[in-house]
Write a structure and sequence with these properties.
Layout lengths: L4 E4 L5 H6 L2 E5 L4 H6 L2 E3 L6 H9 L2
Parallel strand pairs: 1-2, 2-3
Length: 58
């Protein structure tokens, strides 16, 4: 799990982010989710998933 990057944007993603080795919250995520994340990227409208992949995977 330490090699897993997880991306979330809602409360139901908190367990996913906690389990992953590196947690990324979308910019539109609620504050509680962003607090669980190692990084925050743009929201869906601003290609946040692509940003996360470019910054942390590629």
């Amino acid at each position: 799990m330490e090699d897993v990057l997880a991306i979330g944007d809602s409360y139901n993603d908190i367990p996913l982010l906690r389990a992953a080795g590196f947690a990324v919250a979308m910019g539109s995520a609620p504050p509680e989710l962003r607090a669980e994340a190692d990084a925050v990227v743009g929201d869906v409208e601003h290609d946040g998933v692509a940003e996360a992949i470019a910054r942390f995977v590629a």
